[in-house]
Amino acid sequence: MAEKGRGKKVRFQGGGVFPIAILAVLLLGLVLIWYSRASIDSKAPGPRASKGDHWHISYGFYACDLTTGKNAYLPNLTGNIETTSKYLATGVHSHDDGVIHWHPTSAKASGRNAKLQVFLDNYGIKLSNDKLTFPADQESGAVYEEGVTKCKNADGKEVDGVLKAFVWQDSTNVSSFRVLSANLNQIRITENGMAITIAFVPEDVTSIDAPPSAAKLPELGAADSGGATSTTVATDGSATTVTGDTTVSTAPGDTSAVGTATTEAGVSSTTVATTATTVAGTATTG
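Above: the chain sequence. Below: its structure as tokens.
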């Protein structure tokens, strides 16, 4: 009797309805997971490519001076990277001014993906929890590594240096900051006007000054955006001050106030030189 059931195939009633239903449930689950993640990300702080955000973050690299034993900010990163594929893919760069100009062009630098690593990668800087390496064209390829590079503490004693990140959520409030010792390259850009310093210092250093550009961040950001600076120029016997507009027409033969400025896109335009101070007539603000 037991052998009668051998060789028989098990069939589901309804033919292909059951497997189709299972597949539909799985697909629905995947869609719900994707939607949930997208909803969370849309609420996460950070600059948005979809909104055309243009944020400015003060930054600096702070390292012990092995010659004097003092701690000091290193020079700003230099070089125009606006023609590189990394910049074009992210919209993140600097103007040799100690400021990260963050105007994301894609999801790679937007929302939750807006992390310090994006900026570092664009300039070829490698940062881990225990090692900071500059490329050959920045700081002559300097390397700061825990357990290898030495610093001098406040007593002048040579000690090991450690990597830390100092993060100010608001560069105008330099008394409030966080100190991080892990996941340094994963620091998220969550506020316009932040300040971030990557520091190689003795272990007992728990506070440093904000980056030099922090005090000038509103000014530097406005100059980059071209929307908040004002310039007074002489035209036909009177002067006009126009906020956010530095392109002017001068009187025939008058070139005293004319200069050449390069915009962020690298396009030259005739504009007012910042050193021009000659004003004729009565100023009108518009």
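The chain has two domains: 55-221, 226-285.
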